Amino acid sequence: MMRLLSILLCLAAWCAPALRATPVVSLLTVDAGREVYELEGHTELRIRDDAGRDYCVNWGVFDFNSPNFALRFAAGETDYLCIGFPTDMVVAEYVAMGRNVREQVLALDSIQTERLIALVAENMMPQNRVYRYNYVKDNCALRPLTLIERAIGDTLTFRAPEHFRYGYSGKTQGATPEPATFRSEMSLYHSAYPWYQFGIDLALGSGIDYPITTRERAYSPLYLHDVLAGATVNGRPLVSRESVLVTGTPGGVSQPPTPWPLTPVAVSLYLLAATLAVSVRDLRRRSVSRWFDAPFYFLLFAGGCILTYLIFVSTHEATSPNWLYLWLNPLCIIPVIFEWIKSGKRVVYCYQFCNFAALILLLAGHTWLGQALNTAFLILIACDLIRSFIYIYIYRKESGD
Hints:
The protein is an alpha+beta fold. Helices cover 48% and strands 14% of the residues.
């Protein structure tokens, strides 16, 4: 009897380490951070492998100090890295930042787990770890999701969550009514930072305005977390359990929201009021206020130069077509220069006539063209329309037409 008991104890001692060392893979979701590129959270893949290692794989590593980073980012040539870090180091970092981290353990069998770990290891190799980042098509959330799908070898069934977390406040909000677009999704996360969304709406054209699927909405780490919570494989839940790895500020830590008087819409309304006041004065005087038009159209010219670069130089797939080019383009420099030249009035008149027609076309056809317009753009376009009409009206009066 004692001999049998000794054999059983030896077998238990031999099997116990193997049981403890069973590989476990989980998805970590980090709530929003202070930087604008952290508003939609962050995703990492945690692996506890059969060698006893516990590390997190991060597909969101980039170097701001790399040569010409800002220029290359605008040109769509931003390279991100896939790097692994010890979990203890990752936890300590997010504890210091006060960012909440949730962990979802994936319900994978041993074959799927080993396959996923092998795919991650292959992705982390020096020749593979650098990839061309795409904000909505290939990022820190979609990279691990794609590897999970490949490891499973079957189709994940996604169910759009009825509610999901987003924004600086951490409040639970209702999901966007279908069909969602990339632009509508971004606006949810950026609602407290309208200047950031203003820049996105300026730079990105109709390529982000088509209806997207539930999986495409998972480009956002925060949405990916909630959609995986209800995801299934052949009717079996993908996530076996969830816990909070780091207890931080609910909803994330972010900068204070932009006060309404300083938002793009408010600033645009101030400009509209000034435009109306100047235009009424011009009508009474029958003279165009060049001191107003020069800086106004110079700003439009600057925006046109930016769009020219993004549309014709950048490799970002969503920057072209951008129908805002009917409004913002390098030709906006014409009033800045030729309004000061007596013989250039005819040139400005021709420009303003074409400009007025282009703006009407943009306002009337942007829905048909498939590009949603920021509310502030509508107000600014109205300012341009008013100034264009004033110049045409006064010029024709002066010419006796």
